[in-house]
Design brief:
By secondary structure, the protein is an alpha/beta fold. The chain has twelve helices and 14 strands. The protein has two domains: about 150 residues, 3-Layer(aba) Sandwich (Rossmann fold); about 150 residues, Glycogen Phosphorylase B (Rossmann fold, 3-Layer(aba) Sandwich). α5 runs parallel beside α7.
C-alpha cells in the first residue's frame, strides 16, 4: 500500500470544495492545485491512497472519493499530534510555513515517510526546527540561494481555467486580495498608474476581496480607471481573464509564488508579471511580459500594444508547455 499525505494548511475554516461529496463535482469545480495534485498522483498510479489532513475543533466525518478502486481521503483532527497513530505514509508533503508541521516532524520524524517541504515567501525554510528530507522552491533565484533544493511546478485546473472566444473588454485583469496589502504590490501599481497619462487610459478590472481598500488608494492617487469587482469565484475569474488582453501579477518577494500566475496562463491570457515576483522561468518562455524595476511604464505599454503576439504565444504554450501532463510529470519525477 503506497500512501501519500498532504498537509494543506493549519486553518480550521472549511473551504467551498468541502461541500463536494462526489468525485465528479470535485474534479470539475475545485480550483485548488494542492488538492488536485494528490488526485492526479492517484490517477497516474503513483500511490494507492492519499490523505489530506486538516484541523477542526469539531468531529467531522471524512470525505472519501473512490478513484479507480483507490481512496482519496479528506480527514480532520483537533491536533496534528492525534494522527501519529495512523499507518505511516511513504511520502508526506507539507505546504511550508506552519509551526504545527515543524512540531510534528520534530516529535515523530520517522512516522511521515519521506518529508517534503514546499518553501513559500518568507517561509523558504522551516522556521521552528522542522525536520524535512527535501525542500522544494518555486522560483529560480530561491533555488540558487538554497543549494540542494529542487524545483516545484504547479499548474491550474483545466476544467476551470481555459481559453474561449469572447470579446475583449479590458486591457488588464488584476486578480489579488487586498487582505495582503504588503505582499501584492497594490499601492505601488496604483501609484504607477497615477504617474502616466497612457496608463490612466487603460481599462483595468480588479478581482479580489476588500475592494474598499483599493478604492481608497485610487482616491489617494486620483486614479479612476480601475473597476473593482470584489471577490469572484474562479469560473468568473476565468471569464474576466478571457475578456482581458493581460492578467497582472505585481507581487513582491514577501509573497510566495501566487498560483494566479499559472491560472492566468491556463486561461489563455498573456501574463504581465513583475520580475521580482516568484515564478519559475519555465513559465516565462511564451506569452509573458516581465516588468522590471526600471522602465515599468514602457514595458507595460509595449505589452498592451503587442498583445495579439503574446496571445498567440500563450495559446501555443498551453498545448506544448503548460499542459497538465507536462507539469505534473515534472513534479512526479522528483518523488
Amino acid at each position: 500500500m503506497r500512501r501519500f499525505w498532504l498537509f494543506r494548511s493549519n486553518l480550521k475554516s472549511l473551504e467551498y470544495y468541502h461541500d463536494f461529496k462526489d468525485l465528479e463535482t470535485f474534479v470539475n469545480k475545485c480550483h485548488d492545485y494542492y488538492m488536485l495534485l494528490p488526485l492526479w498522483l492517484l490517477q497516474a498510479d503513483y500511490f494507492d491512497e492519499v490523505t489530506i489532513w486538516r484541523l477542526s475543533d469539531n468531529n467531522l466525518d471524512p470525505i472519501v472519493f473512490d478513484v479507480n478502486g483507490k481512496k482519496y481521503y479528506q480527514r480532520w483532527c483537533k491536533s496534528f499530534q492525534n494522527i501519529l497513530c495512523h499507518e505511516e505514509p511513504d511520502i508526506s508533503f507539507f505546504r511550508g510555513g506552519f509551526r504545527d508541521y515543524d512540531e510534528i516532524t520534530k516529535s515523530k520524524p520517522s512516522l511521515f515517510g519521506k518529508k517534503i517541504y514546499l518553501g513559500a515567501g518568507q517561509r523558504i525554510n522551516a522556521q521552528w526546527g522542522g525536520r524535512y528530507d527535501l525542500y522544494l522552491m518555486e522560483d529560480d533565484q530561491d533555488l540558487i540561494d538554497n543549494p540542494g533544493t529542487k524545483p516545484f511546478y504547479k499548474t491550474a485546473s483545466p476544467f476551470i481555467f481555459y481559453p474561449f472566444e469572447t470579446k475583449e473588454k479590458w486591457d488588464i485583469c488584476w486578480p489579488c486580495n487586498f487582505t495582503q496589502i504588503k505582499y501584492k504590490g497594490q499601492e505601488e501599481f496604483i501609484k504607477l498608474i497615477s504617474e502616466h497619462k497612457e496608463l490612466k487610459k487603460l481599462k483595468i478590472v480588479h478581482c479580489g476581496n476588500k475592494p474598499e481598500i483599493g478604492k481608497q488608494l485610487c482616491n489617494k492617487y486620483q486614479v479612476d480607471n480601475i473597476e473593482f469587482k470584489g471577490a469572484v469565484n474562479r469560473e468568473n475569474l476565468n471569464k474576466l481573464l478571457n475578456e482581458s488582453k493581460f492578467g497582472l501579477n505585481f507581487s513582491n518577494r514577501l509573497d510566495g509564488c501566487p498560483r494566479v500566475s499559472t491560472e492566468v496562463l491556463m486561461s489563455g491570457t498573456p501574463l504581465m508579471i513583475h520580475e521580482r515576483t516568484r515564478l519559475m522561468s519555465y513559465y516565462k518562455k511564451r506569452g509573458v511580459v516581465g516588468i522590471g524595476e526600471k522602465n515599468q511604464y514602457d514595458t507595460i505599454m509595449e505589452g498592451i500594444n503587442n498583445h495579439k503576439k503574446y496571445k498567440e504565444e500563450v495559446l501555443k504554450a498551453i498545448k506544448k508547455e503548460l499542459s497538465f501532463d507536462n507539469t505534473s510529470e515534472k513534479n512526479i519525477s522528483l518523488w
